[in-house]
Amino acid sequence: MKQKFSIEGMSCDHCVARIEKAVNELPGIQKVNVHLKRKNGVVKFDDTQVDSNQIVGKISDTGYTAKPM
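Given the sequence above, the corresponding structure tokens read:
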């Protein structure tokens, strides 16, 4: 499954790397692309192992606000 998320609170490439690293730690994540200027990210994942709420929670745990688009 592929899901786009709006992400608020990012200010630099370090923020992008931090979010991508955190989301990649979840089981079933296949690809993560976070875009600083667009304030969003696209995550490809196996929905039998992880869901959108878990991804939002992981992003929130890193200090950013996210919601599915």
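Residues 13-24 form the longest helix (12 residues). Try to locate this feature in the token string yourself.
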